[in-house]
Design goal:
By secondary structure, the protein is α/β, with parallel strands linked by helices. It has one domain: Rossmann fold (3-Layer(aba) Sandwich). Strands 3-4-2-1-5-6 form a 6-stranded mixed sheet.
Length: 161
């Protein structure tokens, strides 16, 4: 079952991430990519307050990030997406601890998972993967490698489409 995630609602619940950090969204995307790889799930994550010229959809493998322009909220974008999904919304899980997002998801027939519960799932899957194959360190990224990837994404976000 794929996920629709309220990104800025999830970030403060993930250990090591905090809103307002430089590239907090991209750090979350990197974690979600690993989650998707290990769980074979698909994720759509919504971030509001995109800087002028930075709004839009970006695909990172099985993670699709939507940067919602100022003037709209991720909550509104998620609700709109659920409406567009129609009856197939029941095949999606919405991740948010925001009561209005949860209500919108329930009304659309989607499953609801609080951000705290998803964080536990994320941590469990990532921990299992690291303990299951400790000899395979090539699949985990060092902090320097994460910074290199983030620098690449930052550069690509500024390039004109």
């Amino acid at each position: 079952m794929p996920y629709l995630i309220d990104g800025h609602n999830l970030i403060p619940k993930v250990p090591g991430l905090r809103l307002g950090s430089v590239d907090d969204e991209m750090h979350l995307v990197v974690l979600l990519q690993e989650f998707c790889r290990l769980s074979r799930k698909q994720v759509n994550v919504y971030f509001d307050q995109a800087a002028p010229g930075q709004s839009g959809k970006r695909i990172f493998g099985t993670v699709t990030a939507y940067f919602v322009p100022t003037g709209r909220t991720a909550d509104q974008a998620i609700s709109q997406r659920l409406r567009k999904l129609g009856r197939s919304a029941r095949n999606w899980t919405v991740v948010s601890s925001d009561q209005s997002v949860q209500l919108s998801a329930r009304q659309a027939g989607a499953q609801v998972l609080a951000s705290e519960a998803f964080t536990r799932q994320l941590s469990e899957i990532l921990t299992q993967a690291s303990t299951a194959s400790p000899e395979k360190t090539e699949s985990s990224l060092s902090p320097e490698e994460v910074d290199e990837w983030l620098a690449l994404f930052r550069t690509r976000r500024r390039d004109p489409p």
